[in-house]
């Protein structure tokens, strides 16, 4: 077809025989390529594993911090408590230095002094106990090296071997730990009992 000016009109449509243009979907550079579902599943599994590990580590850290805070409340005064034990020992030695007979026959002034020392010792032990420090006296108990330190053996046939028969120095606990072991004397015990057959004869 020609226009009135005599020129050909090519705007009527595409030339016959030309292929139509089809737009292709645009793929972002970070988009996974088609067919990588396994890679995505593996990456998701890795991320899930990392997340679970992080959560477990956070929980462990939380529990460890909680234990450390609790321990610091209980055992934070350990050094101070050890220093105070020297005072408790001095008070106990002062009380033990006065024989029972002397106390009974003492004048009122000396009795008041002794009672004051005893009251001071009780107050000190009470203050220690309020802060988790407890005194223990293992007299008559079976010797336990976890809580006691044997200073010597005492021949004593009246009790089983390994029994604490003397306490040189009382022990102290702080919480569930030994602050200071008790210093003790342990019995050797008597001769072993004769077999039953010999006793019948």
Q: Please count the beta strands (DSSP E, at least 2 residues each).
A: 6
- Are there runs of 5+ residues with pLDDT below 50, and where? 191-197
What share of the residues lie within helices? 40-55%
Give the strand line-up of the largest sheet.
1-4-5
- Rg over CA atoms, rounded to whole Å, is 45 Å
The tally of helices reads: 5
Assign the CATH class of one domain.
Mainly Beta
- Quaternary state, please? single chain
Give me the secondary-structure category: alpha+beta
Mean pLDDT over all positions: 82
Q: What is the H-and-E element order?
A: HHHHEEEEEEH
Form type: elongated
Strand content: 15-25%
Topology:
Elements: H1 37-75, H2 78-96, H3 100-105, H4 108-130, E1 133-136, E2 148-154, E3 164-169, E4 171-174, E5 177-180, E6 182-187, H5 196-200
Parallel strand pairs: 2-6
Antiparallel strand pairs: 1-4, 3-6, 4-5
Helix pairs in contact: 2-4
Can you offer a commentary on this structure?
Residues 191-197 have low confidence and may be disordered. A hairpin with a 2-residue loop joins strand 4 and strand 5 (177-180). With 201 residues, this protein is of the alpha+beta class. The protein has a domain at 133-191: Nucleotide Exchange Factor Grpe, Chain A, domain 2 (Roll). It starts with 36 loop residues before the first helix and ends with a helix. Helix 2 (78-96) runs antiparallel to helix 4. It is 46% helix and 15% strand. The radius of gyration is 45 Å and the shape is elongated. Strands 1-4-5 form a 3-stranded antiparallel sheet. The protein has a 3-stranded mixed sheet with strand order 2-6-3, with no helix packed on it. The protein is built from 5 helices and 6 strands, in the order H-H-H-H-E-E-E-E-E-E-H.
């Amino acid at each position: 077809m020609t226009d009135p000016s005599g020129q050909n009109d090519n705007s009527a449509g595409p030339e016959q025989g030309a292929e139509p243009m089809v737009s292709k979907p645009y793929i972002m550079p970070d988009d996974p390529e088609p067919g990588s579902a396994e890679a995505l599943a593996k990456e998701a599994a890795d991320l899930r594993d990392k997340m679970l590990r992080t959560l477990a580590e956070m929980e462990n850290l939380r529990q460890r911090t909680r234990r450390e805070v609790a321990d610091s409340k209980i055992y934070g005064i350990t050094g101070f408590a050890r220093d105070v034990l020297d005072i408790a020992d001095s008070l106990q030695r002062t009380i033990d230095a006065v024989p029972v007979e002397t106390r009974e026959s003492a004048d009122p002034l000396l009795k008041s002094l002794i009672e004051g020392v005893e009251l001071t010792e009780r107050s000190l032990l009470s203050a220690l106990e309020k802060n988790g420090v407890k005194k223990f006296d293992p007299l008559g108990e079976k010797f336990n090296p976890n809580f006691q330190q044997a200073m010597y053996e005492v021949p004593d046939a009246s009790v089983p071997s390994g029994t604490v028969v003397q306490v040189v120095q009382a022990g102290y606990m702080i919480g569930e730990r030994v602050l200071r072991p008790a210093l003790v004397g342990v019995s050797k015990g008597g001769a072993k009992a004769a077999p039953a057959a010999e006793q019948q004869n």
